[in-house]
Specification:
Layout lengths: L1 E5 L3 E9 L10 E9 L4 E6 H16 L5 H12 L4 E2 L4
Antiparallel strand pairs: 1-2, 2-3, 3-4, 4-5
Helix pairs in contact: 1-2
Organism: Pelomonas nitida
Pfam family, one: DUF3567
InterPro entries: DUF3567
Length: about 90
């Protein structure tokens, strides 16, 4: 688990989950990104193709220069609006 981003609006955490048992050949990892919308108090976990798209979008922002917090928040919000799981404190 790696916290990648933390602003006033969002938190993005990356999860890398190794395969349960080692397999011959390339090792497959499961994982994804948890996006927490602090204002809406909702979160979403994205994996697979959606997580890949998210990662490529963030990389494109970084490749274009130093993105501002507003630019990153606007990009993250496109994914965060899909969040339906309420954030619950234990």
């Amino acid at each position: 688990m790696h916290m990648l981003y933390n602003s006033d609006s969002f938190i993005v955490v990356q999860f890398d989950v190794p395969a349960a048992e080692p397999q011959p050949g390339p090792q497959l990892n499961r994982g994804g990104f948890e996006i927490v919308d602090k204002f809406a108090r909702k979160e979403i976990f994205i994996e697979g193709a959606l997580a890949e798209s998210f990662q490529q979008g963030v990389q494109a922002l970084i490749d274009d220069g130093e993105p501002s917090e507003d630019e990153l928040d606007a990009f993250i919000e496109q994914y965060a609006v899909m969040g339906q799981q309420p954030v619950v404190m234990h």
